[in-house]
Design goal:
With 239 residues, the chain is α/β, with parallel strands linked by helices. It has 7 helices and 8 strands; from the N terminus they run H-E-H-E-E-E-E-H-H-E-H-E-H-E-H.
């Protein structure tokens, strides 16, 4: 069986708890450095889940480390004839990010993808309104921010989210996912301060293979999880 049974997670929540433990260790290590630099005015870290799959992982991480939870919304830009093959991405208030080598390999230019970019911006706005309503996006300035997804494959959505968040001047920006393709970790390293994972295989075929339960999520699932976290009106106590 590939991957080995011991490298598979029961579900996204179980993976998030394991990931949260690794993140907590990292935050303890960097705390003196961040304090000395005058960052992280807000004591608790901010965990931002990438909808949809990153939300249950992010909720579990936030509950594990005692962090505030919110969202960062990013959309993949696919090929005109194969929309699920991501060659770029956009995030809230950020520029489009492209895998230029992948775009060139199929004989396209960034300009050719303009219609796809516009469609995804419309969908991104829909998700902002659907998930947040009138709730403002979180202020990341001076904070330790952890962006969470259920996995890192090509890395374009994570890079788009990271570049949008860097404009808000966080004190320390982490990307974390239970499983990350090793070569995508290398590419993302230029856009964040740290990448944290449980597994980073060099041969990465399909994210779902790393989960026993990898059921698709709906907007309602995301809303239910966000509402539960936001209605607590306080930072969860670490478990």
């Amino acid at each position: 069986m590939w991957p080995p049974e011991h490298e598979r997670f029961a579900d996204r929540t179980a993976a998030g708890r394991m990931l949260g433990t690794a993140i907590a260790q990292h935050l303890q290590q960097i705390a003196p450095e961040i304090t000395a630099a005058g960052g992280a005015q807000r004591r608790e870290p901010l965990v931002l889940g990438l909808p949809k799959g990153g939300v249950p992982v992010g909720v579990a991480v936030a509950e594990t480390i005692g962090a505030e939870f919110d969202l960062v919304i990013s959309r993949k830009i696919g090929l005109p004839w194969q929309s699920d093959q991501g060659v770029g991405a956009i995030a809230e208030n950020g520029p489009a990010v492209f895998d230029l080598s992948a775009v060139a390999a199929v004989g396209l230019t960034v300009h050719d993808l303009s219609p796809a970019v516009q469609r995804e911006r419309v969908e991104l706005r829909r998700r902002q309104e659907r998930y947040r309503g009138s709730r403002p996006a979180p202020d990341v300035a001076g904070r330790v921010v952890v962006v969470v997804d259920d996995g890192l494959a090509t890395g374009v959505t994570a890079r788009a989210a990271a570049r949008a968040l860097q404009a808000g001047k966080p004190a320390h920006l982490v990307f974390a996912a239970p499983v990350c393709a090793a070569e995508s970790v290398d590419l993302l390293a230029a856009d964040v301060d740290t990448v944290i994972d449980i597994h980073s295989p060099r041969e990465f075929f399909a994210l779902g293979l790393y989960y026993s339960d990898f059921a698709p999520l709906t907007d309602n699932h995301v809303l239910q999880m966000c509402t539960r976290m936001w209605d607590t009106h306080k930072v969860p106590t670490p478990v």
